[in-house]
Amino acid sequence: GENIVVKDLAEKLNLNVSQVITKLIGMGVMATQNQSIDGETAAIIAEKFGAAVEFIPVETNDVSEDNFGLDFVDKDEDLKLRPPVVTVMGHVDHGKTSLLDAIRQTSVTKSEAGGITQHIGASVANINNKKIVFLDTPGHEAFTSMRARGAQVTDIAILVVAADDGVMPQTIEAINHAKAANVPIIVAINKIDKPTANIDRIKQELVENGLIPEDWGGNTITVPVSAKQKIGIDDLLEMILLVAEIGELKANPNRRAVGTIVEAQLDKGKGPLATVLVQKGTLKVGDMVVSGTSSGRIRAMLDDKGKRVKKAGPSIPVMILGLSEVPNAGDLLYCVEDEKTARNIADKRRDKIREEQMKLSSKVSLDDLFEKI
Ligand code: GTP
Ligand code: MG
């Protein structure tokens, strides 16, 4: 069940930590302020002080932290530069989709024109032989739901602010998300083609929200753009590559792959489909993988243009076919040694979920019982 650190419990109960420890000792529980106690004990303590404990059910299918030792830290000498993964965020209607479209058009090469366009929740732009990966998932989601699962997929946030509208509530929310994730922000001041556009006013509002533009003596890169008229798009891409270079984004491409599920769905004909953003190692057709309770051998992989590929290295998004069930967006995907290992891990996670659900339902029925008394 749920555990809580004694100190945190005292804080939540608005008590001195020694008061809590004394009560614990009275119950025969010896714990220091930094040790954790189980939820049941915490509930009893709370009750003794006239407070009630509310059990908030954990998302039962979230088993991402439970990686069965599948991940390990790479040696510095094995790390190679990888493309940046970029998320576009901003207020409603400020032009996020238009900007992504403009970038895609600018960067689509002729050879790609024949490929089947298939939406895979992420796209790769090629700029002078350098790649930039854009996550198409709604900006906030890429931060919130994935971060809640411990996955950080974004390297750089593009904050779109419409020059005729300014900093709005969702702009501020986006700034907070990016700051919480410790991700650098590049501001794209969009819609500069509009007669009512006022770039200086936007910069002033950015300052008011803690982002001081470079040309005003701060360190926030701002790029005036028009997604509609395709103005400033190259400058923006250049700035992304610059920020990526400064960040020295690296990963080891020569190891078993670890990635994050960006998007997943069930296709009637093809079965479960999942878009994976590879983060470490190289994912290959034929690899055995496990994500949550889903496992399987990769039958085929498609790149962001819908083209079949055999492998995908760090930062590269691919759609994979071959999983046993639809995995959860935000969950990690691990490449494992063999089928037995994959099945074993998926089974153990399934058991754990079942166990947690049972605990939860017995808890609920107990609560129901007490309510009736
Ligand atoms: P949501 O996904 O609904 O939050 O909106 P969004 O941020 O993706 O904005 P979207 O790209 O859909 O653009 C909203 C409107 O602004 C559309 O009507 C676009 O045509 C318009 N728009 C986007 N960029 C520009 C621009 O650079 N100039 C002008 N004049 N209009 C733009
Ligand atoms: Mg949009």
Automatic annotation (TrEMBL):
It is found in: Cytoplasm. Residues 84-232 are annotated as: G-domain. Residues 81-250 form the Tr-type G domain. One of its GO terms (cellular component) is cytosol. The keyword GTP-binding applies. Keywords: Cytoplasm, GTP-binding, Initiation factor, Nucleotide-binding, Protein biosynthesis. GO terms for molecular function: GTP binding; GTPase activity; translation initiation factor activity. It comes from the Bacteria. GTP binds at residues 90-97, 136-140, 190-193. One of the essential components for the initiation of protein synthesis. Protects formylmethionyl-tRNA from spontaneous hydrolysis and promotes its binding to the 30S ribosomal subunits. Also involved in the hydrolysis of GTP during the formation of the 70S ribosomal complex. Belongs to the TRAFAC class translation factor GTPase superfamily. Classic translation factor GTPase family. IF-2 subfamily. This is Translation initiation factor IF-2. The chain holds residues 117 to 489 of 695 of the full protein.
